[in-house]
Amino acid sequence: MTRAASLLLLLAAGAGAGEPSRRNTRIDAAVEAVQPAVVKVFGVKGFRGIYGYMTGVIVHESGLVITRGSVTLDEAPQITCHLHDGRRLQARIVREDRRSKMTLLLLVGAPGERFPAAVLGESAAVRSGQFVLLVGNAYQVALGSERCAVNLGIVNAVAKVALREGMGEFPYDRPVILHDAMNNPGVYGGPLVDLAGRVIGISGTIVESRATNVQAHYAIPIDDLKPFIQDTLERPDAPVVYAPPAPDAPEGGGGPGYHGLRVLKGGINRATPAYIDRVDPGSPAAEAGMRPDDLVLKVDETPVASWKAFVRVMATYRSGQTARLLVKRKEEVLVIPITLREEKAS
Questions:
Q1: Could you tell me the residue range of the domain that residue 271 belongs to?
Q2: Is there a single domain that holds both residue 62 and residue 96?
Q3: pLDDT truncated to tens, each residue of the chain (346 aa)?
Q4: For labeling, which of 47, 58, 137, 295 is most exposed (least CB within 10 Å)?
Q5: Where is the domain boundary, 198, 216, 242?
Q6: Do residues 171 and 36 share a domain?
Q7: How far apart are CA 285 and CA 291, in angstroms?
Q8: Does residue 209 sit in the same domain as residue 267?
Q9: Is 256 in a helix, a strand, or coil?
Q10: Angle at the Cα of 38 from the Cα atoms of 181 and 313, rounded to 5 degrees
Q11: Could you tell me the end-to-end alpha-carbon distance of the chain, in angstroms, rounded to an integer?
């Protein structure tokens, strides 16, 4: 054997023996930092009895999990989260943010239990060309203690873009993080992470540009979600729907708005349309001309596909704000503006 061949074999053997140390890269360290906080979220049974699934990340040691809102959760009689160590815990919806379409869950563990929480970064520092990792339960391959999938990508842009989601408008009106890390089914709600292992965004679904019809992967910047998380921690008795003060809210207003509409509530496992069951006499809705049996199709630019969606949307409006309802009444389609007010104690 030549001296050169012997040296090559020696180098190959040395590389193999040192494999564990070679894996100690920035990417490996970032993955190891965030994986314990990532949870696999399972909700309502859907097509052919298969459970809907997505991803979430623990953002507080009390077991507070942020994920993307979905019918998987909204219609679920039971939500189950699979932790990194294989445990399966029940969870309940704590709060929803309609604008960003994000939801906070709370893990139901042992009293006083503390969970591994992810480190939240600063999304204001995110720049185009930056490497990022997207972590999530792609294609439901992780059911127990298996590690979630990791996709490497770069930030394409941080920009405000006119988007649509499915057949409807996407209501988020602030810049989002556009990236090219593969956002496979099941990854929605998972963390977008920088190479220090810090969460800089939460993944949404795949959306399309309204201007070009091009599909895009996006994440809501974590800086935009921190007030949602912090307010929920500080006010455990706060309304289920998070409603930050609106820029057009009147002086002295800002309390939860009263409209006086009661919808016909349907079953758990199907999306019953938003039919009006009752209109409170003397309420803003009655004064605006709403009637029982009206079908609400939209509230401003937000499509309303079910009675639950209607309740969530209307809960974000505050006293003094006006909601424009697109209503189907028999063969007519009407736009009815309702100016909400504070509900008087009875």
A1: 249-339
A2: yes
A3: 444 444 333 333 334 444 455 555 889 999 999 999 999 998 765 544 455 788 999 999 999 999 998 766 766 678 899 999 989 999 998 998 888 889 999 999 888 899 999 999 999 999 999 999 999 988 777 677 788 889 999 999 998 887 767 656 677 778 999 999 988 888 999 999 999 999 999 998 887 777 777 788 899 999 999 999 998 998 877 778 786 654 444 444 455 688 999 998 765 445 688 999 999 999 999 999 999 999 999 998 888 888 878 887 887 788 888 999 999 999 999 999 999 988 654 4
A4: 47
A5: 242
A6: yes
A7: 8
A8: no
A9: strand
A10: 80
A11: 97
Measured from the Cβ of residue 88, the count of other Cβ atoms closer than 10 Å reads 12
Give 140's DSSP letter. Answer: G
2 is a domain residue: no
**What backbone torsions phi and psi does residue 282 show, to the nearest 5 degrees?**
75, 5
The answer to the question of residue 11 being in a domain is: no
Same domain, 253 and 238: no
**Cα–Cα separations (whole angstroms), residue 35 to 83, 148, 150, 155, 258:** 10, 7, 9, 21, 43
> What is the rounded distance in angstroms from the CA atom of residue 86 to the CA atom of residue 258?
44
